[in-house]
């Protein structure tokens, strides 16, 4: 039998690029199925509407071949290199992988947002092509090269946690207590990846790798646990969902659709635990190269995506004209109320806020007038073809909390739009200023972008996706998250849906290891 031909450099680069393009637009079918089931089960109207938007968005992204989320992620790559694999190259493997990443993210047919900044400490300048990826290598037996690519959103990655527990401490207790502190910035409903054992870095790596396993919680619930590890997965799944956090932290039945857990031997004195949440933009794919050509990626069966429409939710929503916004009108909005926004809004997120705050502190005139305006915390994907803007879902507002009082004081800004909860100081400032905070659904970026009818950059163009834009929107769906009285939906929603945790067999859950 003749030996296999070597893996060609070009095939490797093309396969990485194709896989990243693929996962940017197609949710894994197992995620869509679980989310559709969660939608059917959901009893909380606010959470149900959020899940509906995520599912509609997922279908639009799959059919329109545009990113599910504006945050097209940090590229995580897991390489399993068979000892006998031959690659026809003189270049380092990571360099080839990064060439594939750059090719995917700058694809003119479907450009993905570049989110990576070169230097995390100083300058924070965007690299422009989303490189470099974070690459992990594992040398295995055999002669194949297996690569898993994942695109991990910043909001969920920001909520990763690690603890070195006492050997007798309960992992389930720690996970449940920790998830309760995470807020909604990780865009639930999603998954939890948990790694137990090894060392600190091993536990975190296992948590990340666990997220790449197929979703099988429905199957596990049906057949019951077959091992202590599966029992623990079930316990955590039931207890986390019993917290009532729900989709987008609005309060509801489903916070996680699955809990993935890996373990590894560890020191007798230790019990390292890594926890990494996965947002609703679950994106990963594995392919194998054996020298026979590039990976052949078959599009999923799109009939799996449920066909839902927004009509029902939108007929109940209050219409708001952003061009005639007054403090009196904003004061009539109540936390939890659904709004449809039309008119002009400004955009600005982390880097723009930092710059605005520096200008305010130096007493310099600002490049935009924020008085009585709304600002949307967003970093959109670049537009293609007839689009006004690419996918443009909200970013985590909590990161803007530190600027809120200063900006509200100095500018007369009236409305902020983002996702997830605001902290106590920001809520207090919103109340004192008679302002309001609204949320769009994180993970519904393409759907939100369809409400944007015109877009232009107004200031800080050098910040790229973080520049200040002006959007003209029509019927953009949002929910009042903090009203002028300081009532926060993220504080009032989840307690209403909190319930005692029961086992899959219906018995009350006592905590285990
Ligand atoms: O960067 C973004 O667009 C969003 C970010 O992933 C977030 O969830 O806050």
Automatic annotation (TrEMBL):
InterPro entries found in the cross-reference section = Fe-S_hydro-lyase_TtdA-typ_cat, Fe-S_hydro-lyase_TtdB-typ_cat, Fe-S_hydroAse_TtdB_cat_sf, Fe_dep_fumarate_hydratase
Query: Which GO biological-process labels does this protein carry?
Result: generation of precursor metabolites and energy
Task: Report keywords, A-Z.
Answer: 4Fe-4S, Iron, Iron-sulfur, Lyase, Metal-binding
Alphabetized GO MF terms: 4 iron, 4 sulfur cluster binding; fumarate hydratase activity; metal ion binding
Question: Which Gene3D superfamilies does the record cross-reference, listed alphabetically?
Answer: Fe-S hydro-lyase, tartrate dehydratase beta-type, catalytic domain
What are the required cofactors?
Answer: [4Fe-4S] cluster
Q: Does the keyword Magnesium apply?
A: no
Which residue intervals define the domain Fe-S hydro-lyase tartrate dehydratase alpha-type catalytic in the entry? 15-287
Query: Which SUPFAM superfamilies does the UniProt record give?
Result: FumA C-terminal domain-like (SSF117457)
Task: From the UniProt record, list the reaction(s) this protein catalyses.
Answer: (S)-malate = fumarate + H2O
Q: Where is the Fe-S hydro-lyase tartrate dehydratase beta-type catalytic domain?
A: 291-492
Q: Which Pfam families match?
A: Fumerase, Fumerase_C
For the region Disordered, what residue ranges are annotated? 489-513
Q: What is its EC number?
A: 4.2.1.2
> What does the UniProt record say this protein does?
Catalyzes the reversible hydration of fumarate to (S)-malate.
Q: What is known about its subunit structure?
A: Homodimer.
What family does the entry list? Answer: Belongs to the class-I fumarase family.
| Protein name as catalogued | Fumarate hydratase class I
């Amino acid at each position: 039998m003749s030996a296999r031909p070597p893996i060609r450099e070009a095939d490797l680069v093309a396969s990485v690029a194709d896989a990243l393009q693929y996962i940017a637009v197609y949710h894994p079918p197992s995620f869509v199925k679980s989310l559709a089931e969660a939608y059917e089960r959901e009893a909380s109207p606010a959470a149900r509407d959020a899940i509906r938007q995520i599912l509609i968005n997922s279908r639009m992204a799959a059919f329109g071949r545009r990113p599910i989320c504006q945050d097209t992620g940090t590229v995580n790559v897991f390489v399993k290199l068979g000892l006998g694999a031959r690659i026809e190259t003189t270049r380092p493997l990571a360099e080839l992988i990064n060439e594939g990443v750059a090719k995917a993210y700058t694809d003119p047919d479907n450009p993905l947002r570049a989110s990576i900044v070169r230097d995390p400490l100083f300058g924070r300048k965007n690299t422009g092509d989303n490189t470099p990826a974070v690459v992990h290598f594992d040398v295995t037996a055999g002669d194949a090269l297996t690569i898993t690519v994942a695109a991990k959103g910043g909001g969920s990655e920001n909520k990763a946690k690690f603890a070195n527990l006492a050997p007798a401490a309960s992992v389930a207790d720690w996970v449940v207590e920790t998830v309760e502190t995470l807020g909604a910035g990780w865009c639930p409903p999603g998954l939890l990846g948990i790694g137990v054992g090894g060392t600190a870095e091993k536990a975190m790596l296992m948590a990340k790798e666990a997220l790449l396993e197929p979703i099988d919680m429905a199957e596990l619930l049906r057949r019951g646990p077959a091992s202590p590890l599966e029992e623990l997965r079930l316990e955590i799944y039931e207890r986390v969902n019993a917290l009532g956090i729900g989709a987008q932290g609005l309060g509801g039945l489903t916070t996680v659709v699955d809990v993935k857990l890996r373990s590894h031997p560890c020191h007798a004195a230790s019990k390292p635990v890594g926890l990494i949440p996965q947002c609703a933009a679950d994106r990963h794919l594995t392919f194998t190269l054996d020298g026979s050509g590039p990976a052949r990626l078959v599009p999923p069966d799109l009939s799996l995506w449920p066909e839902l429409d927004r009509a029902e939710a939108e007929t109940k929503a209050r219409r708001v004209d952003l061009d005639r916004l007054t403090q009196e009108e904003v004061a009539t909005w109540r936390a939890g109320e659904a709004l449809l926004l039309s008119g002009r809004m400004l955009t600005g997120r982390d880097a723009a806020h930092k710059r605005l705050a520096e200008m305010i502190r130096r007493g310099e005139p600002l490049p935009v007038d924020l008085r009585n305006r709304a600002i949307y915390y967003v970093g959109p994907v670049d537009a293609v073809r007839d689009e006004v803007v690419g996918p443009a879902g909200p970013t985590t507002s909590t990161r803007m909390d530190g600027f809120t009082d200063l900006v509200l004081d100095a500018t007369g800004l009236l409305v902020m739009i983002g996702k997830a909860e605001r902290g106590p100081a920001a809520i207090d400032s919103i109340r004192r200023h008679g302002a309001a905070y609204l949320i769009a659904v994180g993970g519904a970026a393409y759907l939100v972008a369809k409400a944007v009818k015109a877009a232009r950059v107004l200031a800080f163009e050098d910040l790229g996706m973080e520049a200040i834009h002006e959007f003209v929107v029509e019927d953009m769906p949002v929910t009042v998250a903090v009203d002028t009285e300081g009532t926060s939906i993220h504080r009032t929603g989840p307690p209403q849906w909190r319930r005692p945790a029961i086992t899959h067999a219906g018995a009350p859950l006592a905590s285990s290891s």
